[in-house]
Amino acid sequence: MRFTFWEDFLALVFPKTCAGCNQSLFDFEYMLCKACIASLPMTNYHLQPQNNDLVVKVMGLTKPNLVMSFLRFTKGGMSQRLLHQLKYKNKPEIGIELGQLYGYLLKDVGLDKNWDMITAVPLHRNKFRRRGYNQSEQFGLGISKSLGIPYVPLIVRHIYTETQTSKSRIERLDNVASVFGIDGSFEVQGQRILLVDDVMTTGATLTSCANVLLNANAKVVDMAVIAAGKF
User: Fold this and answer.
1) Per-block mean pLDDT, blocks of 10 residues, the chain (231 long)
2) Domain co-membership, 1 together with 66
3) CA-CA distance, 202 to 56, in Å (whole number)?
4) Do residues 87 and 193 both lie within one domain?
5) Which of 18, 39, 97, 220 is 20–30 Å from 90 (CA)?
6) Are 9 and 122 within one domain?
7) How would you class 192 by CB atoms within 10 Å of its CB: exposed for 0-12, middle for 13-18, buried for 19 or more?
8) Which domain holds residue 2?
């Protein structure tokens, strides 16, 4: 009884608010209210995972199979607000929530049977220490929870790279060359892997990681991101 009273008191003083619209959440809602979930700018690329503009974008950089994005990035829109909070406002739980929501969509179309494990584009340890978590890993953990497929940190980042934001496509490719490697603690050979990241712009970072996995004899590497579009 005392615990319930304390929870009610905290909810009164510090009400839970939606990460999308900042309105108060009901008890049955977590990070996003039902209205914001319904208004997420979903791409539906999971319905055409081998035939969309992201597949074309990575063609020639890696061997594309399934390439998907949960949301379409819109400047000043819902996807940008959520990504900003996830990356810079110490809200890793947003990544978990978005991953779970996307996982349910993937499961609805039977894609949960396509993978043996899920992994994410890693952060360099210096950036991880500063942020305290890897936003892409949080997304992967959410998908893992929905699909019942293990999340495994297969990839390590050996070299700290500069931000990619202001770089051209060619500069981004050069910036991530030889940056990533495989964590020798895990078996990659013959595995069907879903590789996730937070955003896709040129695809340089994501395809660099995909190639590391393929060079380690992964059977297949599919790719999924929280958002993609014009940045």
Assistant:
1) 49 74 90 96 97 94 95 94 96 97 98 97 92 97 98 89 53 64 94 97 92 96 93 48
2) no
3) 11
4) yes
5) 39
6) no
7) middle
8) 1-39
